[in-house]
Automatic annotation (TrEMBL):
The keyword Cell membrane does not apply. It comes from Saccharophagus degradans (strain 2-40 / ATCC 43961 / DSM 17024). It comes from the Bacteria. SUPFAM superfamilies: Pili subunits. This is Pilin. Signal peptide: none annotated. The chain crosses the membrane at residues 20-37. Keywords: Membrane, Transmembrane, Transmembrane helix. It holds the Pfam family N_methyl. The keyword Transcription regulation does not apply.
């Protein structure tokens, strides 16, 4: 029921909206949401791809720098970031292997723990990461694993379609990015 207010002149001032006006506004808002979603959805898919490429690129630059520094210094380690307490031990090919002196830096026996050590050392403010089982409640950004004890895999865990990861080959220093 519409409420009307009569003025002194006898004309009626309407308060509120008619059903037609309300439906028209709902249709326009729905159309705007639909068009916005079409623009927004591909951007979100592209964001995961860009994130993994960015992390892989940063990791690759750090690994190359460590390799070059290890060849210059001719030691089995590099003091990363100029800090004597931040050592990264290199394997027989000069590629970063781990940060723990008691672990073997050989390229053929890499553990997930050593892969995580590299991740945490290379990225001083590293995105959150975990080894193995991922707790759905406290889900990290990246899952870290070792493939055939020769390759470190850093996989983006965020909810998305497909699998996004990059692999670090300890024998060659190559970084290979994979995404759908």
């Amino acid at each position: 029921m519409k409420h009307a207010k009569f003025t002194v002149e006898g004309t009626c001032k309407q308060r509120g909206f008619s059903l037609f006006e309300l439906l028209l506004v709902i249709i326009i808002i729905s159309l705007l949401i639909y068009l916005g979603y079409d623009k927004y959805s591909p951007q979100m898919a592209n964001a995961a791809e860009k994130m993994i490429e960015y992390q892989a690129s940063t990791f690759s630059r750090a690994v190359s720098t460590i390799n070059a520094q290890s060849k210059i210094d001719n030691k089995g380690y590099v003091e990363y970031g100029g800090d004597k307490n931040s050592r990264i031990y290199v394997n027989e090919f000069g590629w970063p292997a781990n940060t723990n002196r008691t672990m073997s830096p050989k390229y053929y026996n890499q553990t997930p723990e050593e892969c995580k050590q590299l991740w945490d050392m290379i990225f001083k403010n590293a995105p959150s990461s975990a080894i193995g089982y991922i707790d759905q409640k406290n889900k990290p950004d990246f899952k870290i694993s070792s493939i055939n004890a020769r390759i470190c895999r850093y996989e983006l865990v965020r909810k998305q379609e497909g699998t996004y990861f990059f692999d670090y080959d300890l024998s060659t220093g190559n970084i290979v990015v994979s995404h759908p």
